[in-house]
Amino acid sequence: xxxxxxxxxxxxxxxxxxxxxxxxxxxxxxxxxxxxxxxxxxxxxxxxxxxxxxxxxxxxxxxxxxxxxxxxxxxxxxxxxxxxxxxxxxxxxxxxxxxxxxxxxxxxxxxxxxxxxxxxxxxxxxxxxxxxxxxxxxxxxxx
Length: 143
Hints:
Helix content: 25-40%
Strand order of the largest sheet: 1-2-3-5-4
Radius of gyration: 15 Å
Distance between the termini: 15 Å
Low-confidence stretches: 1-15
Strand content: 15-25%
Structural class: alpha+beta
Largest sheet: 5 strands, antiparallel
Shape: globular
Mean pLDDT: 84
């Protein structure tokens, strides 16, 4: 198993608060780096469509942490059998929810589609409260 952290591509226990702000591009880069390293070390191929799914899940988790969770406080990317596990931490204990596509007056909403995308593309999703406050959302995406 391999782990990628916010700005420490060789691993380590650094958080975004220690390293500076994290954005969706940081999480996507960690996913791509982990998958590329697996390709180089094991020769295992990765379906590009599956990799795109993993990158989208990584983006949505980070974006949701920024928009709804007070910012990304840390993340990890772990290679697991047949997939990638992405964990993103934020400052809020509020659980993610899927917003209805329209409001009470029937007008289409902007946004609200990230959480359903994460749930649909992942084979496993967990939300865990963190002892110091906030939460960690972990999604495992097959690649």
